[in-house]
From TrEMBL:
<feature type="transmembrane region" description="Helical">
    <location>
        <begin position="360"/>
        <end position="377"/>
    </location>
</feature>
<keyword id="KW-0812">Transmembrane</keyword>
<dbReference type="InterPro" id="IPR005829">
    <property type="entry name" value="Sugar_transporter_CS"/>
</dbReference>
<feature type="transmembrane region" description="Helical">
    <location>
        <begin position="165"/>
        <end position="186"/>
    </location>
</feature>
<dbReference type="InterPro" id="IPR005828">
    <property type="entry name" value="MFS_sugar_transport-like"/>
</dbReference>
<keyword id="KW-1133">Transmembrane helix</keyword>
<dbReference type="Pfam" id="PF00083">
    <property type="entry name" value="Sugar_tr"/>
</dbReference>
<feature type="transmembrane region" description="Helical">
    <location>
        <begin position="107"/>
        <end position="129"/>
    </location>
</feature>
<dbReference type="GO" id="GO:0022857">
    <property type="term" value="F:transmembrane transporter activity"/>
</dbReference>
<feature type="transmembrane region" description="Helical">
    <location>
        <begin position="225"/>
        <end position="243"/>
    </location>
</feature>
<keyword id="KW-0472">Membrane</keyword>
<feature type="transmembrane region" description="Helical">
    <location>
        <begin position="198"/>
        <end position="219"/>
    </location>
</feature>
<feature type="transmembrane region" description="Helical">
    <location>
        <begin position="21"/>
        <end position="41"/>
    </location>
</feature>
<dbReference type="InterPro" id="IPR036259">
    <property type="entry name" value="MFS_trans_sf"/>
</dbReference>
<feature type="transmembrane region" description="Helical">
    <location>
        <begin position="141"/>
        <end position="159"/>
    </location>
</feature>
<feature type="transmembrane region" description="Helical">
    <location>
        <begin position="336"/>
        <end position="354"/>
    </location>
</feature>
<protein>
    <recommendedName>
        <fullName>Major facilitator superfamily (MFS) profile domain-containing protein</fullName>
    </recommendedName>
</protein>
Length: 417
């Protein structure tokens, strides 16, 4: 009779079996990252200009020809009816170009609404999927949510209006949120405490972000890009038979026979010492405005690197704070809070119109508050994962004078194999 941490030590905490699980699950991050950042291309507004109607050139004496290539000037020409043809400076098409939103009042509305509603979808998707994963199992919910992500992603390429496309993006956001919550939890429950930080920090999300521009370069049509970026993820659905259910979750649910089979399979695959797996991380350089100085750009890169490190540490620590029985729910709650930040963050940028330092002050202050708050969380480095919720043993003793003495014993219920 032993606990799961001791079993992991016995069968190798990070052997070939865990490596294969980690790599396979990490591959799902690539299509998920593509789905997340796809609107940067499908909803982009490329530069364009008008081919003028020469019969109306005499009516243009009041227009500033130096601004002829600006969006405002081009829209004025279209409203005057002297724009023969709209010519785009780039061959890439998007929902903006297809549904002629360049000069529409809906342009800003569509762009903002698309970003906000997608992140709202991520918020609710993470919350709901986390709950279901703790009830129904990690693997089953993970593959159902991911399959829906692929299906809806393909369906979005057939949208016949920007309103329908936005609705598809809300659903896609929900399935991204669900996929990433379980994608993070599942491999962590197969490895020992010394490897949880590694598995929590290393992944293929950055690879997906870095490779989507290359895919967009070869697929300039937004519909082709949407259907291809989703369809490429179809083969991953068939890894369902290669990735087992979390043995920790099986033990918590009393399914000991299934857990035993997974652990035996783990022991068979880990006959030899494990070798460290190096993953290539491609980091997409953040876009920046032309007016940024070299010093500001340097600070931006340092900040981006710091955010990546803090995010990785927070992800790992968050997973270790919750017991197995509610770990997915806990992670989904944390993800929900993060999505609230993602929804509000783009709006804070607009405060720069009042004063340029305001957004930086807000972001920096919130980061400092978060860092100070993090200090008060329990340290989890190299400690076993808790499998059950701590319980209280309470014994009350009534004294003769009517007073009561309360004794508390805090313990943790551990399920044993």
């Amino acid at each position: 009779m032993t606990n799961f941490e001791e079993l992991l030590t016995e069968v190798n905490e990070f052997g070939p079996f865990q490596v294969s699980i980690f790599v396979l699950v990490s591959l799902f991050e690539v299509p998920a990252a593509w789905a997340m950042v796809l609107p940067l291309f499908t909803a982009s507004s490329p530069k364009w200009h008008c081919t003028l109607n020469t019969t109306h050139l005499n009516d243009l004496s009041d227009l500033n020809h130096t601004a002829a290539n600006s969006s405002l000037a081009n829209c004025q020409l279209r409203r005057l009816g002297i724009c023969d043809e709209v010519v785009y400076d780039e061959k890439f098409t998007s929902i903006i170009t297809e549904w002629d939103l360049e000069c529409s009042d809906d342009l800003f509305y569509v762009s903002t609404l698309l970003k906000i509603l997608q992140m709202v979808g991520v918020l609710f998707g993470a919350m709901i999927s986390g709950q279901l994963a703790d009830i129904l199992g990690r693997r089953k919910v993970f593959y159902v949510v991911y399959s829906l992500l692929v299906l809806v992603g393909i369906a979005s390429s057939f949208a016949n209006s920007w309103q329908l496309y936005v609705a598809f993006r809300v659903l896609i956001g929900a399935f991204i949120g669900g996929t990433m919550v379980i994608n993070f939890v599942l491999p962590l429950e197969f490895v020992g405490c010394q490897w949880r930080t590694f598995c929590g920090c290393i992944g293929f999300w950055a690879v997906g972000v870095a490779t989507l521009p290359l895919l967009a370069y070869f697929l300039p049509n937004w519909r082709h890009l949407a259907v291809t970026s989703s369809a490429v993820g179809i083969p991953l659905i068939f890894t369902y038979w290669w990735i087992p259910e979390s043995p920790r979750w099986l033990i918590q649910k009393g399914r000991y026979e299934e857990a035993t089979l997974v652990i035996k399979q783990m022991a068979q695959r880990n006959r030899r010492p494990c070798t460290l797996l190096s993953s290539l991380i491609a980091t997409a350089e953040a876009t920046r405005k032309d007016e940024l100085t070299h010093l500001s750009s340097a600070f931006a890169h340092v900040g981006k690197a710091s955010i990546a490190g803090a995010w990785a540490a927070t992800q790992v620590s968050s997973a270790e704070q919750f017991p197995t029985v509610v770990r997915s729910i806990g992670i989904s709650s944390c993800s929900m809070a993060a999505r609230i930040g993602a929804i509000l963050a783009p709006q804070i940028v607009y405060l720069g119109g009042i004063s340029m330092p305001i957004p930086y002050i807000v972001y920096g202050s919130l980061a400092l508050i978060s860092a100070v708050s993090f200090i008060y969380l329990p340290e989890t480095l190299n400690r076993p994962l808790v499998d059950a919720i701590p319980f209280w043993n309470c014994a009350c003793y009534k004294e003769k004078d009517g007073s009561a003495e309360l004794e508390l014993d805090i313990g943790e219920k551990q399920d044993l194999m």
